[in-house]
Amino acid sequence: MTSRDEQRQKSRAEILRVAAEEFDRRGYAAVAMSEVAASAGLTKGSVYFHFTSKAELAQAVVETYFAQWRLLRQEVEERELTGLDAIRWMSLNVAEAYKNDPGVRAPLRLMREAEAIGVELPTPFVGWIEAVREHLQEAQDSGDLHGDLSVDAAAWQLVAAFFGAQEMSHQLTGCADLTVRIDELWHVVLPGLSVRS
Amino acid sequence: MTSRDEQRQKSRAEILRVAAEEFDRRGYAAVAMSEVAASAGLTKGSVYFHFTSKAELAQAVVETYFAQWRLLRQEVEERELTGLDAIRWMSLNVAEAYKNDPGVRAPLRLMREAEAIGVELPTPFVGWIEAVREHLQEAQDSGDLHGDLSVDAAAWQLVAAFFGAQEMSHQLTGCADLTVRIDELWHVVLPGLSVRS
């Protein structure tokens, strides 16, 4: 890679970082491309070199987020985590990321505002529901779950409970208590899921 | 009450109904007072007679919502519902209202957008957490809950799980499956709460 390519990649990453911060704080409609350029210390032309429109920039912010979760799921495999341990580990990692990283919070806001953006964005939640369902199936196959539990229903509800805790902690405490709340979530729901709790 | 008073009250209610629909669908920033007037079949002057600004209108939409929940809580008392029965009954009623009534969905969106509105809005969730906590306490006093369950933690988590299910159902199915999901929520969490399940 030439040093010009490197410089371009660095600029692109910086634009994405700054755009996520702005979208997270103020929402899609309120953010201007010129503000993103100014915050990134770049010219507006340089921002448009990488992203031809604000909608395309928003799309890239969302894609970066999905790429990050693919890495997290890889790490679950590398650590050989399965079943409820895998779900718990993922939930604490996602909570930590959501708390500290606007790049994780912004996409959720953007997906909620998708109508105003007018471009195709991935559907939120469904990837998580599928991942949680797979690990719940592992737990069921190992005899860890109560016999009458529906894996499909429990997966949907776990993702919803996690997402609700994340949102409530965000709105009530600016995420200050999020890690504690996700830990607490497990205390409350685990006896309903697992025969070993 | 004179017929002019009656007419004014009717206009006010109609403005609130229409404003909730618009705020729910498009968010605070996108809605103009003139559009609210047009949808309500009133002049802009008539809307401003009732609400001196868009922010005041948004505030009134949120207040109407809180008044509605005070009525729901009164109904719980009149029906003499207590403990887990009370919480379950409330959750199904709130889900039904959220599914069918923009007047219930709009305030949640407005409270999330409070920063852009620039007026004091009530904090979401805290009233529900307190109501659920009271009923969980009744359940605990009657020996219905597992001994080691923290009533404070469970109240927070139940409200979060409900809210998460509501949001996910909204975003994934336009609330089509909300009632089923809230029913399912109880199947998943009840064994973790109650000794009788």
Write structural notes for this entry:
Chain A is mainly alpha-helical. In chain A, helix 5 runs antiparallel to helix 8, helix 5 runs antiparallel to helix 10 and helix 9 runs antiparallel to helix 10. Chain A is elongated and about 60 Å long. The interface between A and B is large, with 39 and 40 residues.
Features:
homodimer, about 200 residues, about 75% helix, about 0% strand
Strand content of chain A: under 5%
Quaternary assembly? homodimer
Helix content of chain A: over 70%
Mean pLDDT score of chain A = 93
Secondary-structure-derived class of chain A: mainly alpha
Question: Runs of chain A with pLDDT <50, length 5+?
Answer: none
The number of helical segments of chain A is: 10
Number of strands of chain A: 0
The radius of gyration of chain A is 19 Å
Biggest β-sheet strands, sense, barrel of chain A: none
For the terminal residues of chain A, how far apart are their CA atoms? 53 Å
Taken from the alpha-carbon principal axes, the silhouette of chain A is elongated
Provide a short characterization of the protein structure.
Chain A has 197 residues and is mostly helical.
Tell me the layout of helices and strands.
The structure is a homodimer of 197-residue chains.
Chain A: H1 3-26, H2 33-40, H3 44-50, H4 54-78, H5 83-100, H6 102-112, H7 114-117, H8 126-141, H9 151-173, H10 178-193
